[in-house]
Amino acid sequence: MNRYLLYLFFPIMLSADDVIVDQSSLSQYQTDNCVQFDHFDYDDEYLFPLTPDKIKLTDEPIILNRQSYTQEVWIYKISGGNGPQNIIGNGYGQNSPPSILYIDYAGDGEPPKIVYGYGNGRRKFFWELEIGYINSQWIHIAVTKDPTNIIIYINGEVMEHLEWANPINLPIASPQVALGGNFVGKMDNVRMWDVARTQEQIQQYMYDDVPLDEPGLVANYTMDLNN
User: Residues 63-75: pLDDT tens digits?
Assistant: First the structure.
């Protein structure tokens, strides 16, 4: 099943497997085949500190498996933005689907963090990983959940592994509606799975295209602008 993306800052439709782009917009992108989120709106007006750039996931947005899932993304953080910056998902409240965010409250003395987790409709279950300064470099983030574990990987390595004995706190059945939102930087190879991938499986395709018939793959946004 193809899945599509709608850019809110350009009139473009993107497919989960391919990208179809208005040729006049190609100058907005880098040659490394990724999507860039910045401070400029569609009128080239500079907005600070926020950015309106967001990708709306259309064509029946997916609802991830509530028992087990995996989310993967490459990001290249560029200085800017303020407060919570959505990468995948929508915020980090009790009604948020599985989400990944970047948080850097400049001037508060705290290091930047990757925030990951979900809401269950009544409470929020989000965790913070201090990530330090990551500007101007590509990093790979993967989050996996099964009934009793949630793990975050950075560049294929386990950074936090949380276990719980009560598996009833399932994510809310809320669709994945957007990528980005107050995020300043680049994004590439966003993948979502209805299974909890192992570390070896994550590393296997971290730098390569994943086969579309890979078990459990439900969304694959390659950001490939060559089509």
Answer: 999 999 999 999 9
Query: Which residues of the chain fall short of a pLDDT of 50?
Result: 1-26, 28-30, 227
What the block records as the tokens of 224 is 């490939």
Cis-peptide, bond into residue 111, ω within 30° of zero: no
Q: Determine if the pTM surpasses 0.85.
A: no
Tell me the CA distances in angstroms from 198 to 19, 42, 56, 203, 204, one per residue in order: 28, 40, 29, 9, 10
Q: 4-221: which CATH architecture? A: Sandwich (2.60)
The pLDDT of residue 66? 93
H or E segment and range at residue 201: helix 199-204
In tens, the pLDDT along 92-127 reads: 899 999 999 999 875 667 889 999 999 999 999 999
Nearest C-alpha neighbor of 187 from the set 66, 47, 39, 36: 36
In the numeric block, the tokens 């992108």 are attached to 29
Report the alpha-carbon distance of residue 222 to residue 203 in Å, rounded: 17
The gap from C-alpha 172 to its chain's centroid, in whole angstroms, comes to 18
Report how far residue 122's alpha carbon sits from residue 222's, in angstroms, rounded to the nearest whole number: 34
Q: Indicate the domain borders of the chain.
A: 4-221
User: Which residues are 86's β-sheet partners?
Assistant: 101
The full DSSP string for 102-167 is: EEE-TTSSPPPEEEEEEE-SSSEEEEEEE----TTSEEEEEEEEETTEEEEEETTEEEEEEE-S-T
pLDDT computed for residue 123 by the predictor: 93
Give the bridge partners for 221, in sequence order: 190
